[in-house]
Amino acid sequence: MRIVKKITIGVIAVLGGLLVFGIKFISFLISNSVALLSDALESVINIAASSIMLFSIYISGKPPDESHQYGHQKIEEISRLIEGILIIIISILLLHTAFNRLFSPAELHSLDTAISVSIIAAVVNSGIAYMLLKESKMRNSPAFEGDAKHLFSDVLSSIAIWVGLAIVYFTGYLFIDSLLAIGVAAFITRIGLDLIIKSSNYLMDPASREADKKIREILESHRNLFSEYHELKTRRSGNMIFSELHLVVSDTMTVKEAHDIADHLEEEIKKELPDVNLTIHVEPESERKNLKTTKGYRR
User: Fold this and answer.
1) pTM for this entry
2) Strands 276-284 and 240-249
3) Domains of the chain listed by start with CATH number
4) Cα gap 168→162, rounded to integer Å
């Protein structure tokens, strides 16, 4: 059910991108503005990015198989990396357009009408971006986050174009349009670099401090069930966190009793952290004492 909701949101993002492109292209036809044409072409990249995001969500929802025994969640990080790269491409295209307009100004028509039409596209884009950002936080989805920031960067570039065209409309200073576009290009480059750095970090399977802390709290609240624990490790992969630890139990405990305790702890942690996949290795107390003596203690 969860993956179906994510796919539905992804489809809405793709369809919304197509609608936004259509509206922006109409604003270009009305005005003959190269800036508004570049804004429309930027939406083509948005459609491609949303399609990549939708594909990554579909793949990440597949259950583990023989070739991917820990699941397919990491593809969402790859999606976020690609979106960061696409945002950088957008900024380069915007810079190219801005410099062309700076040295080769073109006659514009009906700017007030064209800007009004373009604002409708930006409102649609903002709504989709807000929905994706909200869902990314609720579902811990890197793909949604990447697409949301991508769409927000599109809205920012659109605003800069409106401001520039409005100033041109009232003053006739065509170069102002290009200067504003250059400023926005620098800003959205920063957004793209942020996504690239973040996704690259997560592709390295970093530890999750939040999950580590919460797991320790839950274990401490059940200390009466076991002697101690050690070697607690966590690693993030996509929207999942994989964790493992060694649980030390009394030598007098049967295998079934130890297994039941491990199952109980895994269930308690799963309730608090549904995105955590925990594996518990059970050790007898005597073996742990021998290990401490020979190799030292590491918690």
Assistant:
1) 0.65
2) parallel
3) 2-202 (1.20.1510.10), 209-295 (3.30.70.1350)
4) 10
